[in-house]
Amino acid sequence: MERLSKKPIIEVRHLNKSFGDNHVLKDFSMSVYPGENLVILGKSGSGKSVLIKCIINLIQADEGEIVVLGSPIQGLEQDELDDLRAKVGFLFQSNALYDSMTVRENLEFPLRIHWTKEERALGAEAAVKEALEDVGLLHTIDRMPQELSGGMKKRVALARSLILKPKVILYDEPTTGLDPITSREISQLMVRVQKKYNATAVIISHDLNCIEITSDRVIMLIDGTCYADDTFEALSKSTDHRIKEFFT
């Protein structure tokens, strides 16, 4: 396959993570290749969200190695980790918008952390407007989050994750709590922005419609392990009963 000729943009090797007696990830390994949308599919509580939080060191793994954009994250100093995170967009399941800030101010927040004052003065307005145009919500720029629908909040959160033009985007259950039509719209939007930015995406989901629309490849996370790794179409036709139960 073409992807195997490329160097992985994310590598997870022999990852272990436990919370007390709950062994969430067990010798888990995976590679993510440039430009692909990789979906991690698993049951609730299977460790999907723990995995992507480990990828950017929001949660520290107990054992194993994680390499993102060529950098082993466990050995980075805080300033180096901050620089790396600027290249990784993260769409939280809860959206994590600041209720006391307007849409504009929410999008400016990452710029305040990662851009100099001079850079913000020259480029912040254009960056905010471009990110909102990407998700079709420029008209909401001066609204407050509580004035927006659930789907609109998700789009604004996606715009904020795009504003630094990341090389990698991590999505944590991007369609949870949305109606089927809005879920489909968000899934299609994820594909469009991935193509525009030529970004690599890791998508945590158990929404089969979202997975079918967005995925180039799917990893099944079962019992803390990489149980299966294939396309959505191939997995949906599997006769393995542990895989079939996700598609019935």
Task: Please explain how this structure is put together.
- The model has no long low-confidence stretch (mean pLDDT 91).
- This protein has helices spanning 48-55, 78-85, 103-114, 117-134, 150-162, 180-197, 208-214, 232-236, 241-244; strands at residues 10-19, 22-32, 37-41, 63-68, 71-72, 88-91, 168-172, 200-205, 217-222, 225-230.
- The protein has a domain at 1-34 and 45-87 and 206-248: Rossmann fold, CATH 3.40.50.
- The chain is built from nine helices and ten strands.
- It starts with 9 loop residues before the first strand and ends with a helix.
- With 248 residues, the protein is an alpha/beta fold.
- Helix 3 (103-114) crosses helix 4 (117-134), helix 3 runs parallel beside helix 5 (150-162) and helix 6 runs parallel beside helix 7.
- 36% of the residues are buried.
- The strands form two sheets. A six-stranded mixed β-sheet has the order 6-7-8-3-9-10, sandwiched between helices.
Shape: globular
Number of strands: 10
Q: What is the H level of CATH, i.e. the homologous superfamily of the domain at 1-34 and 45-87 and 206-248?
A: P-loop containing nucleotide triphosphate hydrolases
The proportion of strand residues reads: 15-25%
